[in-house]
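Our consortium's second objective concerns turning raw sequence data into structural hypotheses that experimental partners can test. To show how far this objective has progressed, the report includes one record in full. It was chosen at random from the queue rather than selected for favorable results. The single chain below, 283 residues long, was entered without modification.
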Amino acid sequence: MIIRATYCRLYSASRSFLTLLLCLLASTGCAGKYGTQTTNVAYYPDCYAPIEELRTSEFTVEKSTAAGAVVGGVLGGIVGLIASGGKGSGAAIGAATGAAVGGAAGYGMGKSKQSSEDASLLADYNSRLDGNIQESDKTTAAARLARQCYERQFTAAASAFKAKHLNKEQFNARYQEILAGMEEAASLLGAANKNNTQLVAAYNRALNEEADKRGLSATLVRSSARSKKSPPELAKTADGSELTRMAVKTSRMEQAVSAGQEEERLLQERLATTRRQAADLMS
């Protein structure tokens, strides 16, 4: 009875706050930056898997932050309720404080987990891809892996159709899934490239501004980052070293954007080729 009464008072005192946190936790299942699935997967789940993995990994930080905030809010509310002698205001303050602390801890854990997951995904993609993805981010790598898989499956389906192992209807069903998968990969990659291009522009503006503030040459900083050799005028100061690190990160992002744009171009090119070949086969 005591536990039930305590819970009820806590709920009443901080209902709105906790409801907001729970909604945040629940919302992580909604569509995010990768959009909603548009491919009906029936024949080629392995080809679609990289795209699905992107969506699965997208909300690592959000889920961890929200979960930490919810747990911290509940525990903080209970402590606040007890410490204040059962006052609702104490529960609300405790819930808010606990949520802030729990959310911050959850965010840190989520970022760490996301970085680990991203590294694992890239390593896995690299082992299965034709070509090097050293300068790619996970979105580009996933799109390339999906494209290569769908291309192989289209070649196999076309061969089976020519050999009359598949009729026209069976071939078309497979072709439509391949087409949808490649279009979805191209769409999410295009959105990622646009976002990354904006990020690179923001990083470059920040680098220029910070270099100007410190009386250093942004061109020299970028040259240092590319050569991986920091000149004395940069290496001898903390400001110079920090700017070099900023330039290195910006350079890596630029390389990732370039790789993403090239993969997007290839995807669109292969999509056009696939449509043309399918039309010729079924004409």
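The partners drew two points from this record. DSSP finds nine helices and no strands in the chain. The radius of gyration is 26 Å. Both points have been shared with the crystallography group to help prioritize constructs.
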